[in-house]
Amino acid sequence: MKINDVKEKLKKLQSVKFILPDGNAIPKHFHVTEVGIITKNFIDCGGTIREDKIANFQLWTADDFDHRLAPKKLLDIIELSEKTLKLDNLEIEVEYQSDTIGKFGLDFNGTSFLLTNKQTDCLDKDKCGIDEPILESTSSCSPKTGCC
What does the radius of gyration of the chain's CA atoms come to, in whole angstroms? Predict the structure, then answer.
């Protein structure tokens, strides 16, 4: 989900709710402690130089159980970030504390923002000699059985 998508959703919401991939909600008294830009310059395993740029939201919960972040307030934080950081319409990554700092993608289900699992991957499978996985047949029919 990109910055502009989140802004449009926030304009229509009465409250902001984030759901973890396991289905549990982040406590209602969460804070957004950071909105920023993360730029990652790196070389992949195939030798290609790459740059990734994402928007980052860091969510945090404290003991101020009565705290609530209104949609308008989060929208104001995002718009201030756009002005001061020159934040473009980037893909969003959300950080949230669990056993370690978790990094999540972001989606929306109509009422809540969904934190989605992210996966590592080889970025240059051709140069590394990694073939795409071959899907196993779900049918017992094959040319050798005569059923085809």
Answer: 21
